[in-house]
What we know:
Blueprint: E1 2-13, E2 16-28, E3 34-37, H1 44-52, E4 59-64, E5 68-72, H2 84-94, H3 99-110, H4 125-138, E6 143-147, H5 155-169, E7 173-177, H6 181-187, E8 190-195, E9 198-202, H7 205-219
Parallel strand pairs: 3-7, 3-8, 5-6, 6-7
Antiparallel strand pairs: 1-2, 1-4, 8-9
Helix pairs in contact: 2-3, 3-4
Amino acid sequence: MIRLEHVSKSYKSRYGCVQVLDDVCMDFPKGHSVGVLGLNGAGKSTLIKIIGGTEYADKGRIVREGKVSWPMGYTGGFQGSMTGRENARFVARIYGADCREIEAFTQDFAELGFHFDMPLKSYSAGMKGRFAFAVSLACDFEYYLVDETLETGDARYREKFRRAFEERRERASVILVSHNEQTIRRNCDQAAILNGGKIHVFDDINEAFKEYRLLQTKVA
């Protein structure tokens, strides 16, 4: 279970203070996958980073029971001067996993060739994305956090990733932030809308998208 207890987060901008999370209380129960919808700038990425611990809330508390991934595809937590192999081993040690298993899976799945033994700072954006997705899949998490996209690489690689992710989803929960209806319908059984710093949860995904379309119409 992941629980948000009175979580608030704001940013300063040229227009003043922007409140993206305003005293949010919400549970993400184990065994359910939740898709969070929101307009651009609503705070979807901030929410997923706070849940994953890569960003801190201004107020409130996040309770995490079980192993929670970092946002999939997020490369900010890796060390650029270390090689892909060294970063994979480092992640394995952090999560108490078998270093050889994590290293072998990541090397095979990321398809980086000799670049796997080169520093991450030398990687292209696409290579970094493949590495980040591969090492996320290599670890056995109970919650997978996904920010916006589940696609990286060419069509063949995207299909490879889709199949692997679906296998993980059968035994884990997903928290996915996106505005893509197809992605949420394919990966989630519940949906929520983040708007004005508040989160409204829907058990019926169809109702969530109906409400979201109305929200889009209002700001169009």
